[in-house]
Amino acid sequence: MVTRTVCQVLQRRLATAAAAARAPAIEVRSHRSAVFSREQARQKALYPRIEKIEVSMQGPGLDGTLLIMNKGMSTPLSCARHLTEYHVTNSALALVDGEPWSLHQPLTQSCSLTLLTFKDSDPTLVNQAYWQSCAALLGQVMETAFKDDFTVNLLSTPEVEVTSGAFCCDVVLDPQLDSWTPSEESLRSLTRGAQQLIHHDLAWEPLEVAPSLALEVFSHSRCKQEEVEHKAAQNPKGTVMLHRCGDHVLLSVGPLVARTGLCSQYEVTALHSLEQGPWGLHRRAQGLSLPRQLQAHHTVWRKLRWRAEKLVQVPRPEEEAPPSPPDSTAASDQPGTTPV
Fold first, then answer.
1. Which among 244, 268, 274 is positioned nearest to 171, based on CA atoms?
2. 192 close to 137: Cβ distance less than 8 angstroms
3. Is the CB of residue 160 less than 8 Å from the CB of residue 183?
């Protein structure tokens, strides 16, 4: 009994010391957002004079429409505001000279522009961007769902097709939570966290940056720094794409939809334990969502949810990053081991 008590005291002291050694979650998020804002301002300052560009609009009822916009300042959303309220509220993604483009990413030269919605005849691109956006939202919820006593490391987000039945977010929780199995109430709490972000209708702001800047953004996380190096090595331009939602900054694999308010039905459906990795026990959070423009009857939703509870199998990458000692990326200041 005495031995057990001593062990428990030592464990508590070690946990307290580890928590004290790492930066509070609010400071980590503030640092990441501040570096993002600084680089965003620097890139805007590259266009000190207002130069005009021609944007040729494409799409139903828009062919032949020519807009005169500001180079390095105007975005596809700015163009949509020169059209109709429908284009502002329903556009989710854009094509700029045929390339997928965030609605909030500035236009840097004369181009053709197509605004994409979920009800287009071929919604493949916007659906995939939506799936990635829902996964990004899930990662934001997971990172901010636990108090500072518990670390949360967001791993590289698996790229899964919409046909997989669920979007995914891989995480490593604090080792103290390795034996924790989330209850239905815990999953509902995570869902409520996502719905709050949806209610706030936050923009996903894009920013293409050099790897050195991204390494500074994620200076508190060796896990994310390795992901930055991996993504930069894969990109022919040698850059990485960041997005910011509120004060949450994330690495992304492609453009995300314009804002969280485009989500409607959204539910966190499962948190599966995978295998031990270099950072600890890997877990796969999964969810299901439909955009505001598309709704499902509750009986259909129930069937979709049942499918989304099943573990989504993701092919292993051909090359995995070498193992490194885990760092301590803090989670949020929410109470308890049950996410709120």
1. 274
2. no
3. no
Q: How far apart are CA 154 and CA 173, in angstroms?
A: 9
Residues 6+ apart with CB under 8 A from 10: none
Query: What ranges in the chain are assigned the alpha helix state H?
Result: 2-21, 25-44, 76-80, 85-90, 124-143, 184-199, 211-217, 222-234, 298-308
Measured distance CA(283)–CA(153) in Å, rounded: 10
Contact 238, 110 (CB under 8 A): no
Q: What gap in Å lies between CA 135 and CA 1, rounded to an integer? A: 46
Question: Angle formed by the axes of helices 124-143 and 184-199, to 10°?
Answer: 120
- Indicate the pairing of strand 263-277 with strand 248-252: unpaired
307-332 tens-digit pLDDT = 999 999 887 655 444 444 544 443 33
Are 263 and 134 in contact by the 8 Å Cβ rule? The answer is yes
Adjacency order of strands within the sheet including 240-245: 205-209, 240-245, 248-252
- 277 has which bridge partners? 280
Q: Which of 225, 220, 271 is nearest to 251 (CA)?
A: 225
Average pLDDT (292-313) is 91
Cα–Cα distance, 257 to 130 (Å, whole number)? 6
CB 67 within 8 A of CB 53: no
Closest CA to 147 of 246, 16, 260: 16
Q: 258-272 burial by CB neighbour count: b if 16+ within 10 A, else e?
A: bbbbbbebbbbbbbe
Task: Report CA-CA distances (Å) from 293 to 30, 53, 104, 117, 277.
Answer: 34, 32, 20, 9, 39
In 61-102, DSSP assigns E strands to 66-70, 93-96, 99-101
The string of pLDDT tens digits covering residues 36-72 is: 999 999 999 999 899 999 999 999 889 889 999 999 9
Distance from C-alpha of 121 to C-alpha of 146, rounded to nearest angstrom: 42
Among the listed residues 282, 305, 22, 312, the one whose alpha carbon sits nearest the alpha carbon of residue 155 = 282
Q: From CA 87, how far away is CA 61, in angstroms rounded?
A: 12
